[in-house]
Specification:
This protein is mainly α. It has one domain (3-99). It has helices at 10-24, 32-51, 60-77, 81-84. Helix 1 (10-24) packs across helix 2 and helix 2 (32-51) packs antiparallel against helix 3 (60-77).
Length: 105
């Protein structure tokens, strides 16, 4: 997890994203930046949902910009049904010899 997320709402999203992407077999160190963008956008969206209508000046158009950022990052990560159909996990390779039952992760 990127250090800037420590103690923020983004952590909840980051943790769940790690679980989901790992289960899909598509998580990689190379995805850190887009995962951070998604997690931060999700946290901002959640905060805006809470504050909208409380006189803070947050408008639907402000929220729409965050939604677009969230949707773009979700597509990059394969988090929508249509994006998932384009994301293919690399098959896990089996080890040779006596350790053949183990898989390289």
């Amino acid at each position: 997890m990127p250090p800037h997320m420590e103690g923020t709402l983004s952590v909840e999203c980051w943790d769940q994203l790690c679980i989901d992407l790992s289960a899909m077999g598509v998580m990689s160190q190379a995805d850190r930046a887009i995962m951070a963008i998604y997690s931060d956008a999700w946290a901002l969206y959640q905060t805006m949902q809470t504050l909208m209508g409380s006189g803070t000046g947050i408008k639907a158009c402000d929220q729409d910009k965050v939604i677009v950022r969230l949707q773009k990052a979700a597509t990059e990560l394969g988090l929508s049904p249509s994006a998932r159909s384009r994301v293919h996990a690399k098959p896990k390779e089996k080890l040779e010899g006596k350790a053949g039952r183990l898989r390289v992760v």
